[in-house]
Amino acid sequence: MLRSWGYAAVAAAAVLWTTGAQGASITYHYSSGSATITATSGTQTIGVGTLSLNGQFAAFDSTSGDLTDFSSTTPNQWIVLNTVFGGFNQVWVNSATMHPGAGYGTLATTQISPGHWNTSVMPVVVDAVYTAKNTITNTSIGPLPLSYTNATPLNATIDVIDGTFTLQGITLGIISVPGEANPLIVKADVTFVPEPAAAGLLALAGLALGLLRKRG
Fold first, then answer.
1. Residue 101 and residue 114: Cα distance in Å, rounded?
2. What letter would DSSP give residue 1?
3. How high is the pLDDT of residue 32?
4. Pair 78, 88: CB distance under 8 Å
5. Three-state SS at 29
6. Is the dihedral of CA 136, 181, 49, 147 positive or negative?
7. What is the separation, in whole angstroms, between the first and last Cα of the chain?
8. pLDDT, tens digit, 9 for 90 and up, residues 88-100
9. How far is CA 144 from the centre of its chain?
10. Are 118 and 155 in contact (CB under 8 A)?
């Protein structure tokens, strides 16, 4: 098994060697990730939590650092509010999927170091289902579907050598709550981690990319 992975790693490096000069879009699959969630209303922060992510992939351009495509999903999890809001003290994210929206593209890219970029992208769409709960009275509303398009640029940090990226400031949803003057705004900063089996492939591919740049 180790030998077969070694052959695969050499092959991956060879592919980068031959295609890196033209800029290849490389897709990475992720076994884990996390989203730091912040729930606010007006100027008040009413909840902070961390949710796990699954079902993720991202496609990077190995030369420009552009984030050309991505998708991630959030399984059924909840955020505990630090105060009762609209009669509820928990917000359940039954499901959420983040993906590029219509007309998606990269607005700007700044290289930090070889294989490492800051990239600005838009638009990003979040399709989610929410449930509000009160654990004291055992009441709930939902599940309620909500689709939200982030029409302002979002910042992504990409490392094509490690195969990691983060996406900051994603608005998961803006929810009007009866009895409250301001809506509930749920935002997330997400971090993606490559599958362990792919780590060796990414390292060798990164080495090939570095050698290719030195030759150029």
1. 29
2. -
3. 78
4. no
5. strand
6. positive
7. 35
8. 999 999 999 999 9
9. 22
10. yes
